[in-house]
Amino acid sequence: MADQNVPPRRPRDDRGWDGRQHHTSDSYGDPTASYGYDSPHPYQGGYAAQGDPREQYGDGYAHAGQPAPAPRGPQWVGPEGLGRPAPARPAGAGLPTLDDDDEPGRKVGRRKAIVALGGTAAVVAGGAALAMTPQFRSLFGDEAAAGDATGSAVTDGTLARPSGQQPSTVRTYTEQNESYMGSRAGEALKKNAPSGGRTFSGPAAAAAETKVTVKTVLAKDPILHLARRTTFGATPAVVSDIKKQGIDAWIRGQLDPDKIEPSKAELKLAELPTQTLSVQQLRDQRDKLNEQGAQPEREVVDATLARQIWSKRQLFEVMVDFWNDFLHVAADFDGGEVYRTSFDKDVVRKHALGSYPEMLVAANKHPALLIYLNQKDSRKDAINENLARENLELYSVGVDGGYKEGDVRQAAMLQTGRGVDDKGQYVLRVNQHYMGKVKILGFTHANTFSIKDVNNPTAKEIAAVDAAIDKYITYIALHPSTAKYVAQSLATRFVSDTPPKSLVDRLAKAYTSNNGMIKPVLMALFSSSEFWAAVGQKVRRPMEYLVATYRVLGVSPEASAKNDNGDNKRTPFARGLRQIHDKLRELGQYPMGQPTPDGYPDVYVAWTSAGTMVNGWNEAGEIIAGYRTSFTYTAPEKLVAKPPATAGAYVDALAQRLVHQKLTAREKNLILGVAGVSATTKVDATFNGAITAVARAILASPQHHLR
């Protein structure tokens, strides 16, 4: 695996106060399974135990190895422990399979040329060669790079979180993006980001009135900018649609995805047998599915990739990906094979362009989240605070949102009793719900109910307890700190790694005034000058790079005529999607792939890995050459309908086709060097046999890496 680029998991503890692990042996469909640290899955709800939780609260409990005192009120199952170190960085040296060796007599070697070209894309966003990372300087023989980590340093500052301290001062999960941007490379990026702006009457007006002043190699074309930011990769068809419909109409259409017809690939998702099955059907048919080689927790990723590449509902898919990082539940956890598809459909996709408070309420009642963060094991006499903490730290107000450790505990007490029944459905067990007044971040509730028999409550009594918990979840989802946190995250995704405070404040105001509805926030974002001024200020992450490559090359979901489907259990389409999925695992990013609940970071300096970038270039070469026959590819010599007869003009035409603009003179010369020709050299449609290498070099340019 070339590069995971993921932080180590957060220490968790699944043991009760008596130090015992609560679990059963059935880890497939039995929601009573704890999915703890002895599971065969390395990352899942619960995480590795890090010692006895009695030692970590400072409450006078016995140390490990000593007898425990008699229970005193609620017993705590806590997630304390050591903080995580900064993410490990790969060495990044070496250029595997990058055009093999340079040919004798070539003026500019292919390997050196493509690295020089791609190295420009590996700098701080803007493509202006502001600060090449140490990993890439090492490719050019820069010895100083070996000991210089300033280009990708992380100022995490993570420490253990002692009991009672303010979370924002002693962090476990930090604000990932903010932490990464504390590096020297992050500081350089801030200098090239738009600093402020205003809101206009609509997106088209904002685009027309905004002047782009940042340094960037991207064309300062508002239509291209919109296509790059609101889709997984601009294509000729998308650009044509925006020009035809106009900016405002196109955005309105994208914000109403139900009216957009499904693509051929989306109709072919029926070839993924698990994606239409209910939770109960997945449980009942697991033996049959295993025989077919169908893995639900992987097929939900496969289906997501298909939609990212081929769906016409591109803004919707971008927002699904956003929420999969913000309200993150990994696909690969024990229980994911049964519940993750339902979470995708019934929580994320149902609310992606709707109400975030409703999404958070739905998530907190979904078996996937309840299992992933061990809420199903939380009861009044053994309170697990995992979900309560992440609701505050990751899913709402954020680590700097003002909550304290006492708030986490109060929230955990309020949420006790929520779990999953033996049919795999959400249940609230009133007899396991803590009763008593709670106060969390200004939210107060008596949390006392008139229940005649807690072991046999009526539907009305259960609903009353459930409503109290929902009221709290809605409260934190609408908290001012949540408004700011969502606004900051959206601005980071759509505008720049260091979005202006002016924009974040306006988006937070839109979130609050619209009660957490997402469409008005997005319209405010697209109507801002900051959005239109930020051309070239985002670098594609590994998944975004590869998906954009499939899109721009016009790959079809239909199998090639050369395909020989030797695996009669799965269709070529299903197999092809799994190949993309597996490649993205190598690159370190795939949908729902982060093992820990914080989701993937969304800033450039978190992904500065030479190994990952070179692996992406090599994959682009595989796609251009059409080696994988599960899909149909446009032959590289046919990417340009009528290729010019000279090399220089051909490069211009191919760049226009692949990155929608001309390259700089330096980049053009480097690409000509890849083919070993001059601008005036006569070439045929195959670029005298070098068309694949030339196309791949263009896809290694900053114009394709930036979005």
Automatic annotation (TrEMBL):
A Pfam family reported for this protein in Swiss-Prot or TrEMBL: DUF1800
Compositionally biased residues, Low complexity: 82-96
Annotated keywords: Membrane, Transmembrane, Transmembrane helix
Basic and acidic residues: compositionally biased ranges: 10-25
Residues covered by region (Disordered): 1-107
Keyword Membrane carried by entry: yes
InterPro entries (alphabetical): DUF1800
TM annotation in the entry: 113-132
Protein name per the record: DUF1800 domain-containing protein
Originating organism: Micromonospora lupini str. Lupac 08
